User: Fold this.
Amino acid sequence: MTARDYCAADKAVAVEQFNTGRKKGCIVRFDFVPVVNKVPVQGSRKGRRGQPQEGEEVQYREVPTDLVAFSILVYPEIPTPEKVEDDIRADLAVRYAGGTAPEIDFEQYRTAIANL
Assistant:
């Protein structure tokens, strides 16, 4: 499985080529998911040490953030579009084994890699 990274939504590029002199390659980002924080509701009573009292269930509300979580694949050379598609499908199969994987436009990745 690939690594997950967090970034502001406007800075995430799906396909990026890098050339630092000694290293050349390609970075592919996919599976973008907005990050939502769970914040406890202030109405719950707390015990002596700040923990909820026994038998009381803590209520949470979800607060959206401006961050986006995504997966990253790093290739030491420019990959073929078929290799990238196979790697993305394999990662999604592992990450969302029992659930529904998000829809990904593979044609966008094919076009971007062909343009590198």
